[in-house]
């Protein structure tokens, strides 16, 4: 298994999937998505793996999409086709819910855009006290992807999901805890140890019970998840990424100015 932007290891029954592209704040591009798919599939199939830990190396969990890459395409006069990327991150999102093994996410610093989605996509989210979750898609004229709106609507309700999706209001660690999104908030220096402590506890537990509990919840709440990702998320993001507003949002972000939206 050749991974370029992820460090993968198995320690005492815990598969540690560490996003490792700190120079770009662990941006989720197609290579990162491919690596995540491979790592999650490997962990799911490995009988030695009892728990999966998704974390990051560097000062941020993930800044989301590679806006610098989008900016280069826009300035060169080209179109940005995100269909392949959105389809791949959809596979990642579904794998995190469908695997019978507990998935813990350890979130430090910014978890923006698709990083937000990955952070809340596991079964337990342990946050550092400096963690900040941001559905930043709207600032680029896009819609949330990687399952974010689906997961939020299921967990905190449709009205609050709409609020965060449309306003892009940051959710700090303590608020994430209050909303029920986070399992625990700890000082950033303790994040690694606390996440591994939880993983170790889960790894010693009744694994068949865990797997079947996840199956019950998946069938009750997520049975149409893969279909929704493919038939709703991909086409809605395709529509938004083809707009002039998206190009303006990308340029405004990179040029550090306020966007001028045209609604087209």
Topology at a glance:
Layout lengths: L5 E6 L2 E6 L10 H16 L5 E6 L10 H9 L7 H16 L4 E5 L2 E3 L1 H7 L3 E5 L3 E3 L13 H9 L1 H10 L3 E2 H7 L4 E3 L4 H13 L3 H15 L3 H17 L2 H11 L10
Parallel strand pairs: 2-3, 3-4, 4-6, 5-7, 6-9
Antiparallel strand pairs: 1-2, 7-8
Helix pairs in contact: 1-3, 2-11, 3-10, 5-6
Q: What percentage of the residues does DSSP assign to strands (E)?
A: 5-15%
Helix content: 40-55%
- Give a quick account of the main beta sheet: strands, pairing sense, barrel closure: 6 strands, mixed
Number of strands: 9
Q: Which shape, going by the Cα principal axes?
A: globular
Class per helix and strand makeup: alpha/beta
Whole-number mean pLDDT = 95
Over all CA atoms, what is the radius of gyration? 18 Å
User: How are the strands of the largest sheet arranged?
Assistant: 1-2-3-4-6-9
pLDDT < 50 stretches: none
- H/E element sequence: EEHEHHEEHEEHHEHEHHHH
Straight-line distance between termini: 43 Å
The tally of helices reads 11
Question: What key phrases describe this protein's structure?
Answer:
264 residues; alpha/beta; 6-stranded mixed sheet; 3-stranded mixed sheet; 11 helices; 9 strands; 49% helix
How would you describe this protein?
Helix 3 (83-98) packs antiparallel against helix 10 (225-241). It is built from eleven helices and nine strands. Strand 2, helix 1 (30-45) and strand 3 (51-56) form a beta-alpha-beta unit. It is 49% helix and 15% strand. The strands form two sheets. The protein has a six-stranded mixed sheet with strand order 1-2-3-4-6-9, with helices on both faces. Strands 5-7-8 form a three-stranded mixed sheet. The model has no long low-confidence stretch (mean pLDDT 95). The longest helix has 17 residues, at 225-241.
